[in-house]
Design goal:
35% of the residues lie in helices and 24% in strands. The protein has 203 residues and is α+β, with helices and mostly antiparallel strands. It starts with 13 loop residues before the first helix and ends with a strand.
């Protein structure tokens, strides 16, 4: 009968990289991952490694959330009760989170990932799809945005980013607006997911 496939299951691609380092002759017919590259600054090198350990016509199938295209908090509220200049600074401060050149979560686009696979010798098909979730905004959500208990080395909070352009009084004003408009309300949260299927070209 047909040969049974051998399936290796592990943590996102770090586990696969460790396995390859121990068994450099290992090859795969298919590699499937969810958010395997989402925050990896060395994406191109990882993709090259995957290519080197895929069988001819092997495939890589990924589902990657795209943080750069995620829901913006300021879009969930009506800022018109704020001074126009202040509301503009709120929007600008939040958008700056997603324009960072140093945060690997947001330094890439779907086009970047597609080009990286193509450069490594893959034929690539992609689909960018919205992922909708209904959430109830609890007090813990508001606290996470505006009063996080952050350990050393952890990511900056929403309020940390706003504080770069807002005074403490203005920040408190924005927090009260969010609380007033969102607390215990149900919201539709929209993320974007990139589905990518890369097939290794025959050399």
């Amino acid at each position: 009968g047909p040969e049974r496939p051998i399936i290796v299951v592990g943590a996102p691609l770090e586990g696969l990289e460790k396995l390859i380092s121990k068994e450099p002759e290992l090859t795969f017919e298919a590699i499937v991952a969810h958010n395997g590259l989402i925050d990896r600054p060395e994406r191109s090198e990882i993709i090259e490694t995957l290519s080197n350990h895929l069988a001819p016509d092997g495939v890589v199938s990924l589902g990657e959330n795209v943080p750069r295209l995620t829901q913006r908090l300021h879009e969930l509220v009506d800022l018109s009760s704020l001074d126009k200049e202040l509301s503009d600074r709120v929007v600008e401060a939040e958008e700056s989170i997603y324009e960072s050149s140093t945060d690997p979560l947001v330094t890439w686009t779907p086009e970047d990932l597609t080009k990286a696979f193509e450069s490594a010798g893959f034929d690539v098909m992609t689909e960018l799809a919205p992922l909708h979730r209904e959430l109830r905004v609890s007090r813990s959500f508001i606290k996470r945005w505006f009063e996080p208990e952050r350990g050393e080395g952890e990511r900056l909070s929403y309020a940390d980013h706003l504080a770069k352009q807002l005074s403490p009084e203005e920040l408190d004003q924005v927090k009260r607006l969010f609380t007033r408009q969102l607390l215990d309300r149900r919201i539709n949260w929209t993320a974007q997911v990139l589905y990518l299927l890369a097939t290794k070209k025959r050399s």
